[in-house]
Amino acid sequence: MNKSSLFDGINEKDLKKMFKCFDTRIIEYKKDTTVISNMAKNNLIGVIMEGEAVLVRYDYNGNRTILEHLEEGSVFGGIFLSSNFNEISVHTTSYSKIVMFDFDHIPKKCNKNCDYHTVLINNMLSTLAEKLQKLNERIEILTKKSTREKLLEYFENTGRRLGRKTFTLPMSYTDLADYFGVDRSALMRELKYLKDDGFIETNKKRITIINY
Hints:
This protein is of the alpha+beta class. It is built from five helices and eleven strands. The chain folds into two domains: 5-131, Sandwich (Jelly Rolls), CATH 2.60.120; 144-209, Arc Repressor Mutant, subunit A (Orthogonal Bundle). Strands 1-8-3-6 form a four-stranded antiparallel sheet, with no helix packed on it. Strands 2-7-4-5 form a four-stranded antiparallel sheet. A three-stranded antiparallel sheet has the order 9-11-10. Strand 4 (53-58) and strand 5 form a beta hairpin.
C-alpha cells in the first residue's frame, strides 16, 4: 500500500492505523474522470496509489493548461496552491486508485500521539520541497521563447531526473502541448524538426536524446 514518499518510514501496520484515524477514503476512478474541481478552495489531500492524472486549469475562454502530471505516488491538494488560483481540477488519464483525506489531520495530532504522525509531518515538508522544485522546472520551461527550446529543456530535465537518455513520455502529446501552453500541431511539427536535425529519436511516446 505504501507507494508514496508521503508515507515513507511508516510501516504497513501503522499506515492502516493512520488511514483509520484520518477517516481516509480509497476511491477508484475510471479514465477521464474529474477527481476534484476548484481544488484551491477545498482542504483535501489526495495520493495516487495506482494510475495517473493531471492537474488542470481552465481560463475564462475554456483554454486548458496542464500544471502538473501526477503519477503513482504523487500527492495533490489545495494546500499546495495559492488561493488566487481558480478553476483548478484533477482529472484522471487512466484508471486510478486514490487515497483521500482531510489535510487538517496532519498538523493536528490526535490524543494518542502516534510516532507515525511526526514522520508524516516531516514527509509533508519534503513533499512541499519537491513541489517547489517541480514548479521551478516548469517556470524554467515556460520562460523559453520557442517550442523547440521548451521541448529540449523538458527532455533534458526528464532525462536527468530518470538518469537515462531514453524514456517514455509520461503524458500524451496533446497533454504535453497543454503543459507547454502551445498548439499541438506546432508541438508535433517541432518534434519532427528535432528528429530530422538529429537532436532526438522518437518511437511513438518513446524519446531518445541524441545530441544538444
